[in-house]
Amino acid sequence: MGKENDGKGSKVSETLCSFLRKCMFCVLSVGPVPNHISFIMDGNRRYAKKMKLTEGTRHRVGFLALMSMLKYCYELGVKYVTIYAFSIDNFKRSPDEVQSLMDLMLEKIEGLMKEDSMVNRYGVRVCFIGNLKLLSDSVRLAAEKAMLATATNSKAVLSICVAYTSTNEIVHAVQESCEEKWDERVLNVSKASCEKDGEEHFVNLADIEKNMYMAVVPDPDILIRTSGETRLSNFLLWQSAYCLLHSPSALWPEIGFWHLIWAVLNFQRNYSYLQKKNKQL
Q1: Are the C-beta atoms of residues 67 and 22 closer than 8 Å to each other?
Q2: Rounded Cα distance, 116 and 120, in Å
Q3: Which of 149, 199, 204, 228 is the most exposed place for a label (fewest CB within 10 A)?
Q4: What is the C-alpha to C-alpha distance for residues 221 and 30, in angstroms, rounded to an integer?
């Protein structure tokens, strides 16, 4: 009987919290709602040390925080969410930790495919961003399968940056752009045509942006890095030129509903300035 009452009480509490969130989101939606929020999920290690958690447990606690944050974003009406899941630099960590992260990533990717998953509940298309060739075969194949399975979802987009750094992305985009321009030049059968249209064979800004890994989504409006750190750590350097940076002191597993609310309120307060800067680009 006690367990039954506890279950009912939990459901009532969850329903009440959901109702209050919806009320808050209705108030926020009177102002501009960010189209794209990106996250640097910093502080997992410090949280584990503080709470004396094992390595596997700390990653799973971090994943639960991510699920909550995604739910809040999609309920608010944020269409694009990007997370920094695994940097190329992370491959320099101990082999055991890298393998543990790869195993966890594989487990969670497979979890995204379940019928009752958040991806299916909110109609989310999943994109894996980065140099995917660096991933293990099993993780890469699982990522490709997830992207294919969610390709027709159109309500929201979750971009997961794995084997990613911004400098690698920029170098990749420049290389791709140069190869495209070279191929175009080779296809020109007339030397006179080459001389006449010479400027068309120079790499320009549009060429580079088209070949960015992140070209599949618009630039972020807000970039949130937890644990109070203000470094970008080689994440979205190109795309975050005029987005709002928000650095709550909470460690990633501690991030919650009100941290997102304050980030959105700060965005709304600075919206006119940010819009003005973006129009100058």
Answers
A1: no
A2: 7
A3: 199
A4: 17
Query: 68: which residues sit within 8 A by CB, 6+ positions away?
Result: 256, 257
Catalytic option among 42, 183, 207, 221: 42
Phi-psi region of 265 (alpha: psi -120 to 50; beta: other; left: phi over 0): alpha
Helix (H, G, I), strand (E, B) or coil at 126: strand
Active site residue 42: yes
Report d(CA 7, CA 131) in Å as an integer: 45
Residues contacting 157, CB < 8 A, separation 6+: 79, 80, 81, 124, 125, 126, 127, 216, 217
Alpha helices in the chain (DSSP H): 2-28, 44-51, 55-76, 95-112, 118-121, 137-149, 166-187, 191-196, 205-210, 257-269, 271-279
Q: How many residues make up the chain in this entry?
A: 281
Contacts of 209 (CB under 8 A, 6+ apart): 173, 215, 238
One DSSP character per residue, 42-88 reads: --HHHHHHHHT--HHHHHHHHHHHHHHHHHHHHHHT--EEEEEEEEG
Query: What are the residues whose beta carbons fall under 8 Å from the beta carbon of 91, sequence distance 6 or more?
Result: 98, 134, 163
Q: pLDDT, tens digit, for every residue of 133-170? A: 999 999 999 999 999 999 999 999 999 999 999 999 99
Residue 132 to residue 140: CA distance in whole angstroms: 6
- Tokens for 170, please give them: 């920029």
